[in-house]
Amino acid sequence: MRFAPHESVVFHTKARCPLMLFVEVQELPTTVASAMLQGGALATAASGETLQEASKVITEATTPDVTARKREGWEAKVARIGKASELAKGNPGWKLTSMFVKSNDDLRQEVFVMQLISFCQRIFPAEHAWLASYHIQATGPDTGLIETITSAQDLGRLKKSPGYTTLRALFESRHGPPEGAPFKAAQAHFSRSLAAYSVLMWILLLRDRHNENLMLDDDGHYFHVDFGFVLGHSTGKQIGGLVECSPFKMTAEYIDVLDGLGSETYKAFCASCVANLRAARSHGEAICTLVEVVGTNSVFPCFQVVPVAKVAPRLRERLCLDLPDAEFEAEAMRIVNSAANHKGTAYYDKAQNMQRGIAI
C-alpha cells in the first residue's frame, strides 16, 4: 500500500548505510490470478484521495526520533502506526511489515548461504535442530532487500539493555524460574537452535560472528544473520592475529544457559550437534556439489578470496566424508568439545568491542 511516512531508519556502519523501511500492506484473501485482475482497481484506490489524506495524518511531529524508533518494540510500533494510519482504520487486512535495504554488499552470496541453510533445515532432524529462514532478494550486484524477523533482537543490543547481567538471567526474567515449564521450553529452543547453527557454522565456516550478527527471539531460539564471510573468507587477518578460529561460537554464557558443562541439558546439546553433523554428512556429497557448482567461475566474495578448488576439499573434511563410520562420533564430539570457551572466540569478541563498541 505504502511506505509508512517518517519511519525509515538509517543504520550507519563504516562501509555502508543500510536502511530499514516500514511498509503498510494489505493482506487479501485471494488467489494470484484474481489479484492480477484486481490489480488495476487496487492501484487506483491506493493512489487516490484516501492515500493522500492518510499521508497527512502521520507527520514528523507525531513520530518518535531516530533513537526512539530504533529502540521501540515491534508490537508498540505496529500499534502506534496503526492508530495513526487512516489506511488501517476499519481494515482487517492492514499489516505492517519491514525490510532492510542494503548497498555495497553482494547479497547474491547471502542468498546462496540462505539456500544452504534451507537445505539443512530439511535434512537436520527436527528433534535436534531449529533454523530460521528468511527472504533475501538481491536486486543487483551490490544491492538488495532483506526480510526482518520482528520477534527477535541481536545479542549486542540485548547486552546493552538496562539491567542486563547475563544471558541466563535474561532467560529467567523472560521465562520464569529454571524449574518451570516456560523456562524449560525456552531452554530447549535455545539448545536445539544453538546446536543447529553450531554445526552450520562449522560446515560453512561462518565468520564475523560478533553479537550484532547473533539473534535471540521471544521464544528462546538463537540464530545467525549476515553471511558476508563464509567458506574461508574471514575477518581474522583484517584485525590481526589468530581470532575467530573456533569450530563454532560456544561462550561461557551459552554454557550457563544450558546448565553448565556436564549437565544433562549440555549433554543433550552435544547429542544434537552430533546428530545434525551426522545428517549433514549423510547429505555431504550433495552439499559439496552445490558449493562446487555455484563456486565455479563465481564472483561471490568468498570464492574470490578462496578459490573453489580449495574450498571443496576442506568442506569434505569438515563434513567427515572420508572418515570411517566407526570414527565419526568421536570426531564429532572432539569438534564440539573444542569449541567450548575457545580463546579464539573471546579474542574476536574483545577485538570487536574495542574497535566497534559491540557488546561482549
UniProtKB/TrEMBL annotation:
GO cellular component term, pick one: cytoplasm
Pfam families in alphabetical order: PI3_PI4_kinase
Keywords: Kinase, Transferase
PROSITE patterns the record matches: PI3_4_KINASE_1, PI3_4_KINASE_2, PI3_4_KINASE_3
Biological process, per Gene Ontology: phosphatidylinositol phosphate biosynthetic process; phosphatidylinositol-mediated signaling
Domain PI3K/PI4K catalytic: 72-344
The keyword Transferase is annotated on this UniProt entry: yes
UniProt GO molecular function: 1-phosphatidylinositol 4-kinase activity
Entries under Gene3D superfamilies matching the protein: Phosphatidylinositol 3-/4-kinase, catalytic domain (1.10.1070.11), Phosphatidylinositol 3-kinase Catalytic Subunit, Chain A, domain 4 (3.30.1010.10)
Protein name, as recorded: PI3K/PI4K catalytic domain-containing protein
Species this protein is from: Phaeocystis antarctica
